[in-house]
Amino acid sequence: MENSKGKLLIIDDEERLRKLLARILQLEGYEVLEGATAKEGLNKLRNDTIDVVISDVKLPDMNGIDLTKKIKTDYPATEIIVLTAYGTINDGVTAIKNGAFDYITKGDDNEKIIPLISKAMDKAILQRRVLELESKLKVKFGFDRIVGTSAAITDAIKLAQRVAVTDTTVLLLGETGTGKEVFAEAIHQASPRSAKPFVAINCSAFSKDLLESELFGHKAGAFTGAIKDKKGLFEEATGGTIFLDELGELDHDLQAKLLRVLESQQFIKLGDTKTTKVNVRLLAATNRNLQEDVAKGTFRSDLFYRLSVFQITLPALRERRKDIGLLAKYFVAYFAAKVNKQVASLKSDFVEKLETYNWPGNVRELKNIIERAIILSDNNELDASLLPYEFEHPAAKNSNSISAFDLASVEKLHIQRVINHTHGNRAEAARLLNIGIATLYRKLKEYDIDH
Ligand SMILES: Nc1ncnc2c1ncn2[C@@H]1O[C@H](COP(=O)(O)OP(=O)(O)OP(=O)(O)O)[C@@H](O)[C@H]1O
C-alpha cells in the first residue's frame, strides 16, 4: 500500500475480534497484517518491517508479556500495545515494564484505541529514522568510506581492521592527505569503544602551552586568563579514542607527559596538584620520520617504542595509481550531488592526466582537484581543460633546475604571498592553499618563512 500510514500486526487467536480490529484500522489508513499465534506473529515480523504490534496478552503458545520482551530485543524500533482482559490491569503494567508502549483493555472504544495507535506509530517511525541515520553515520565514518581496491590500500585496511577490535595504540604513518585521519576514525568505529567519543587534535596547530591545556585541561587560575576549570581532550574522550595528528611536533615536555598517560593512564591538569585517571585509547599519526627524530634526539626513544607497537603505513596515491580512477569517480559523484549538477562522463584525457600526475598532496589533493573541476565545468562532462596548470606542464612539477623558476622557489613565494594576504593567519592560509595545517607548518620551517 503506497500511501499507508504505517504497518501494524495484530496477534490474537480470537478470530472475530482480530478481524474486526483489522477492519477498523485499515479504514484508518494503516496496512494491517494478522497472526493467530505468537509463532505466526514472529514469522511476520521476520519477513516484514512492522511499526506497531497489537498483541493479546494470552496467546495459545506464549504469554504476551514474554512476547513483548522478545520483540523489543529483536526489533527495538517496533512498538507494542498489549490487549488485556477486563480487570487485569496488572498484566498491562507488567507489559509496559517489559517495554510495551501501552495496553488496551478489550472492549475499550475506538476513540481510545485509535489515538493510542497513532502515537505508538509516530514513535516507531521516528525510532526507525534514528536507527537508519545512525547506521548511515557508521558507514560514513567506517572502513566502507575508504575507497580503493589496490593491494597497497587493502593490506592497510586489513591490518587496521585487525587491530581495531583491540585496545592497542596505533601509529599511522604516511604522507599528507593519504587518509590517516580517515583510518583513525574507521578504527574507532570498528572498535568496542565506538559508542563513546572520538576526539581528534592536530598537535602542530597549537603553541606548546595551549596544547598542554587542550590535551590535559587546567584548573581555574593555572595561568592568566584561566578563569574556570577546563576539561582537556583526554577527559572529553573518556571511554573512547583520542587521535593525535602530527604527533611528531610535540615538544620534549609534552612527550614525557604523553608517555606517562600511556604507562599509567593518568595525568596532572595544569595548575592541579592531584592526578586524574583516564581510560582512553590512543591513535597517533605523523608524516615525519620519527626514527630520524629519535636519532637526532628531538623525539624521545621510549615514547617512540611505546607508540610503534603497531604501525600502519598508508601508501601514497602515486603508489596505488590503480585507485585514482575509482577515487575520482567517487569524488565526482559526491561533489556533483553537493552542487546539484549532473555529471555524465569523465573524458579519457581527464582520467589519463589524473593517472599520470605525481600527487604530492595525495587523496586530499585529488579531492580538491575534482571539486574545482566540477565547479568549473559548464556541461555534463569533465575534460582535461578543467585541470590546473601543473597538469598541462608536468615538467613544472618535476623540474630539478635550480633557478628562479624552480618549484621550491615558486612555492615559497606563493606561500609567502598567501600568508601576507591572511595577515599571518596560518589556519586560513592552509585553507586557501588547500593543504593541511601540518604541511603548512613544515613548509614554513623548510623555507624559513617566519610570521
Ligand atoms: N581512501 C580514501 N577514500 C576516500 N576518501 C579518502 C581516502 N583517503 C583520504 N580521503 C579523503 O582525503 C582527505 C584527506 O584525508 P586525511 O585528512 O585523512 O589525510 P591525512 O593523512 O590525515 O592528512 P594530514 O597528514 O595532512 O593530516 C579527506 O577529505 C578524506 O576524506
Write the layout of secondary structure elements.
Blueprint: E1 7-11, H1 15-27, E2 31-35, H2 38-47, E3 52-56, H3 64-74, E4 79-84, H4 89-97, E5 102-105, H5 110-141, H6 151-164, E6 170-173, H7 180-189, E7 198-202, H8 208-216, E8 217-218, E9 230-231, H9 233-236, E10 241-245, H10 252-264, E11 266-268, E12 275-277, E13 281-286, H11 290-296, H12 301-307, E14 311-313, H13 324-338, E15 345-346, H14 348-356, H15 362-376, E16 381-382, H16 389-392, H17 394-398, H18 407-421, H19 426-433, H20 437-446
Parallel strand pairs: 1-2, 1-3, 3-4, 4-5, 6-13, 6-14, 7-10, 10-13, 15-16
Antiparallel strand pairs: 8-9, 11-12
Adenosine-5'-triphosphate binds next to α7, α15 and α20.
GO molecular function, one term: ATP binding
Keywords: ATP-binding, Nucleotide-binding, Phosphoprotein, Transcription, Transcription regulation
InterPro entries: AAA+_ATPase, AAA_lid_NorR, CheY-like_superfamily, Homeodomain-like_sf, HTH_Fis, P-loop_NTPase, Sig_transdc_resp-reg_receiver, Sigma_54_int
